[in-house]
Amino acid sequence: MPPKIRGMTANLTSQTSTLKRFTLMVSGEDVIDAGLEQNVPPSGLPQERFLLGDGLPIAPVLLLGQSDVSVNPNDVIACLQPVHFHATRDHLILMAQSQIDLTANESTKLLQTALPFIEEDFGSKVLFQGQRDWFISAGPFASLATHSIDQAHGRNIDWWMPRDTSEIGIAKLWRKLQNEIQMLWHIDPVNEEREQRGYPSINSLWISGIGKLADLQTPQLLENTNQIYGNHPLLSGLAKYLEIPQENEIDFSRLQNAFAWIDRPDSIWGNLSKALLNQELHEVEIIDFPKGQARHRIFTVKDLSKKSWAFWKKSEPLTWSEVISA
After folding, report:
1. Residues with Cβ < 8 Å from 124, sequence gap 6 or more?
2. For helices 58-66 and 233-242, what crossing angle results, to 10°?
């Protein structure tokens, strides 16, 4: 049996602790089996639910972070995203937006083509157009159950398409609009140019994140945070909502009472260990999501060395792979 690593089993202490703490959140995956009994996919990635609450108002939080638009807390907002469906032998797969290299100019032209159809069916004007995300009041589509591209990409879209909840026929209404836009974009010059350059065509529109700011439930630890680090679009909106400074890159001279959600958490473990050794930090909190459930663990300087039953051997430093695999 491997030696026990103390921090691996530590419980979360009080969020109001006066100790110098740095919190690092690690992205998790959804647990597909959780939704099989109802034949529906799980609602949201675990980190989305952790940061936003079960209401998952992703669209208004993204809008808040990307624009200066005044967002009414009670307005139900939807996020529309131009995407590529990759055709396999028997189904379609949603590609991540990071894989399609959509330019701002292409996004503008595609929206101009689709705009009359979008605004007619939604019954309102587009609130804001970002390079990858377009925002509009959800209107008749407010009751749809949807899934973010972060959750659905790389998978058969059949299971992840919007579904009816309280009102029957809304998903069908969305598919009609989606099909109309697909036909428009199929012959659009933007896609002709993209295909000539070897890029995937923008052949569909994705809807997700439907919700309102009034349903946002942020975790208490964020409300007690002085600084947010990370470049995920959700963080910009949350930071603005909570009036907390946010930066894409971590400033290792300002770790105390900070929260980070980054793509490569392994890349900063050495810096965090050093900060503990130098007493710049008293604690590092790791939040991850084994089996889709939030897990909080506290690491102190005492937890940085693995303890071995072979007492005559020099202790070895705790590695990131050992932290995250426990």
Report:
1. 136, 137, 139
2. 80
**Residue 31 — very low, low, confident or very high, per pLDDT cuts 50/70/90?**
confident
Amino acid code (one letter) for 240:
K
Reduced to 3 states, what is the DSSP secondary structure of residue 34?
helix
User: In this structure, which amino acid lies at residue 2?
Assistant: P
**Rounded (10°) angle between helices 170-186 and 104-122:** 140
CA 102, 132, 205, 230 dihedral sign is positive
The gap from C-alpha 188 to its chain's centroid, in whole angstroms, comes to: 30
Nearest to 212 by CA among 135, 124, 115: 135
pLDDT digits (tens, 9 = 90+) for 273-305: 999 999 999 999 999 999 889 999 999 999 887
> What's the predicted TM-score (pTM) here?
0.89
259, pLDDT greater than 60: yes
* Token reading at 94: 């949603």
The H or E element that residue 21 is part of is: strand 21-25
Q: How far apart are CA 124 and CA 289, in angstroms?
A: 38
Amino acid at site 197: R
Q: Which two tokens stand for residue 269?
A: 């473990």
* Structural tokens at position 227: 């600084």
C-alpha torsion angle, residues 86, 87, 91, 94 (rounded to 10): 10
